[in-house]
Amino acid sequence: MKLLEIEDLSVSVLTEGGYVDIISGLSFSIRKGEIYGLCGESGCGKTVTALSILRLLGSNFHIKGSIFFSGANLLSIPEKEMRQIRGGEISIVFQEPMTSLNPVLKIGEQIGEMLEVQLKLKKKEVKDRVIELLKEVGFEDPERRYHQYPHQLSGGQRQRVLISMAIALNPKLIICDEPTTALDVASEWEILNLLLKLVKQRNMAMIFITHNLHIVERLCTRVGIMYLGRLIEEQKKDIFFERPLHPYSQGLLSSALIRGDELKPIKGTVPDLRNIPSGCKFHPRCDYVMDVCIKEEPKFVKTDNEGYVRCFLYGT
Amino acid sequence: MLSVRNLSKIYEVKKSVFAISSTKIKALDSVSFELKDGETLGVVGESGSGKSTLARCILLLERPDSGSIRFKGIDILKLKGKDFKSLRKEVQIVFQDPYSSLNPRKRVIDIISEPILNFSLEQKERIKERVTGILMSVGLDVSFMYKYPHEMSGGQRQRIAIARALATEPSLLVADEPVSSLDVSIQAQILSLLLEVKKKNRLSMIFISHDLNVVRFVSERIIVMFKGKVLEEGGRDEIFSNPLHPYTRMLIAYSKGEPMPVKIESGEGASCVYYQKCPYRIKRCISDQPVLFGTDGHKVACFLEGGN
Ligand SMILES: Nc1ncnc2c1ncn2[C@@H]1O[C@H](COP(=O)(O)OP(=O)(O)O)[C@@H](O)[C@H]1O
Ligand SMILES: Nc1ncnc2c1ncn2[C@@H]1O[C@H](COP(=O)(O)OP(=O)(O)O)[C@@H](O)[C@H]1O
Ligand code: SF4
Ligand SMILES: [Mg+2]
Ligand SMILES: [Mg+2]
Q1: How big is the A-B interface in CB pairs under 8 Å?
Q2: Are A210 and A219 in contact (CB under 8 A)?
Q3: E strands of chain A, at which residues?
Q4: Residue B38's CATH number
Q5: Do B190 and B251 belong to one domain?
Q6: Does residue B99 contact residue B154 with C-beta atoms inside 8 Å?
Q7: B181, closest residue in chain A (CA to CA)
Q8: Those residues with Cβ within 8 angstroms of residue B287's Cβ, 6 or more apart along the chain or in another chain
């Protein structure tokens, strides 16, 4: 069953030089219980996609398309309803936990404040809930943690606090935007395991945003690869790592040293959004480019195995 | 090529601006290793393990508190005047962040020709030719000659940093997290460029990174650092097929996506630097500090492996 369905999403932003397209014709959906890895290099539009789903983009952004969640189009419901969904039904964890936490409030109070506002619980009930949550995200001494301030915790511990806030209201979907990028490997590992456990136990779905294909391979059930604001391939995890279809996907896997000892770098660099190429947006860097690739943009077409790819090598 | 013996460096850090007492951080604690001619030594360890301090000491950008560094047989910590300058020509570095390591007010031609003129390696009239050649060897065409750093992408800036390092025709290149701030497709380009120039210029290389995958790809030998100490040292394949230290085992398990034992975080003040995180720790690790021991091919600092 589809939990979230994004259809033909386009986002542009107003800059000094006029509107610049950031996301173009993005379509994908999230089913119950799955972990969708949204992957791509910096600037490809991962964070903007996440912020579009939660309607957190500023007024200088222009959004088109639709984002269906539990039957409602999130892009057209009133802000009051959206506030219920944010945190309650869909929550988000960002990369830098320090900036998402209030430095002068105790950990327990921050989590509690949120429960109080949203659930209108009594003080005592709130505290019990907070302690339970802290336990659930792996703190062995939740009472002590309750009274600590953010700066007294390590980066990994702060990220766990944010995760506890993200699950506090039993969301159906949790979006994690590069939640471990700032952590050392041991803490990263811990956070990933925690997320896996929570998704299973609470039967949530997750969109895991990352530039790190190693993490996608470990964590996700499906993968979507973005390039210049477009999805260029989407596959079940195993199929993707076994046989990536799009030339860009193939280049990324080799660049990330995923399959052994061959390094075949992709040539060139990601173009500026104000100056994107004609036709297939990857054509200036592609080793397989054909005439048609320069003239037309390939569509995002179905492949075998319920996947999608945007490349003329696989039909039009 | 390079022989580092018992290198130590301690920083005193005040806990706050007003604090009277200060704490001592052992950025390097008796670090020893050898680098053979033409070899690439990978230095891996999480942030704060002392990797950059080691790089700065080798480059003579910083003086260690004790220990020795011999380069081609010469004790470089004792060098003065002309000899000191000629070492600068022989050993070059590429840093992580190509933006802050390049002077923003200088054009590419000035950045690259500065060390060449400094060491009188070329006459002024022929400098343009020389720079063109170096630019080409790092995959950039002449159109970059008159650009400023801010007019280039991160990957292009890193190419310029490599070009500057190659300009003096060094025999040792120290690369301190040279790809860590780059996107993965650009990382791969810079990695393959480094390997290419290393081969072409017959360089020896010290390649520093927190990313075990990358270190594995470029290095022939690897040292694993943690809180200023070398915990394990050995040939690349030996380290990966037979990791001995619990920290190395954790890093490798992680990079392969294998399950790991639960992480522990307690026990401050123990002698072994890894005690606080070690799932296999024993009593002795609290009171004694294991020293690096073993064969030339593989050394480890851990009591579980029979260390002293
Ligand atoms: N407020 C903004 N104004 C102008 N451009 C923006 C703004 N926010 C994001 N962008 C641009 O949109 C693109 C996608 O950004 P983002 O979604 O943050 O990328 P990612 O998360 O994949 O690294 C980038 O090129 C970025 O520069
Ligand atoms: N100039 C300095 N003053 C004080 N402490 C320092 C200085 N440089 C490094 N350190 C400390 O020394 C330790 C090792 O740092 P560094 O060599 O930068 O490690 P790495 O490069 O492995 O991240 C860290 O704890 C760091 O905070
Ligand atoms: S459509 Fe053409 S240019 Fe684009 S990825 Fe496929 S083959 Fe390459
Ligand atoms: Mg982002
Ligand atoms: Mg460093």
Answers
A1: 67
A2: no
A3: 2-15, 18-31, 35-39, 61-69, 72-73, 90-93, 173-177, 205-210, 222-227, 230-236, 301-302, 308-309
A4: 3.40.50.300
A5: no
A6: yes
A7: A42
A8: B271
Looking at the predicted structure, is the pLDDT value of residue B159 above 80? yes
Q: Do A255 and B47 lie within an 8 Å CB cutoff?
A: no
pLDDT digits (tens, 9 = 90+) for B130-157: 999 999 999 998 989 999 999 888 889 9
- Residue B61 vs residues A118, A127, A263, B93, B210: alpha-carbon distances, Å: 56, 53, 33, 11, 22
The CA distances from residue A282 to A166, B140, B265, in Å, are 36, 21, 46
Q: Does A265 touch chain B (CB under 8 A)?
A: yes
> What tokens were used for B186?
């650009």
Q: In this complex, is the C-beta atom of A21 within 8 Å of any C-beta atom belonging to chain B?
A: no
Cβ burial A49-66 (10 Å sphere, 16+ → b, else e):
bbbbbbbebeeebebebe
In chain B, what residues touch A252 (CB-CB under 8 Å)? 184-185
Please list the ranges in chain A whose pLDDT falls under 70. 97, 260-261, 316
**Containing domain of residue B23, as a range?**
2-227
Could you give the number of structural domains in chain B? 2
Q: Identify the structural domains of chain A with CATH numbers, from first to last.
A: 2-89+169-314 (3.40.50.300), 98-168 (no CATH)
3-state DSSP assignment of residue B123: coil
User: Residue B230 in contact with residue B7, Cβ under 8 Å?
Assistant: no
In the sheet where A18-31 sits, what is the strand order?
A18-31, A2-15, A61-69, A72-73
Q: What is the C-alpha separation between A284 and A239, in angstroms, rounded?
A: 27
Sheet holding B91-94, edge to edge: B91-94, B172-176, B204-209, B40-44, B221-226, B229-235, B298-300, B293-295
ipTM tops 0.85: yes
Q: Ligand 5 centroid vs B47 CA: distance in angstroms? A: 6
Q: What is the pLDDT of residues A61-118, one digit of tens each?
A: 999 999 999 889 999 999 999 999 998 899 999 887 677 889 899 999 999 988 888 8
- Give the integer Cα–Cα distance in Å for A52 and A45: 10
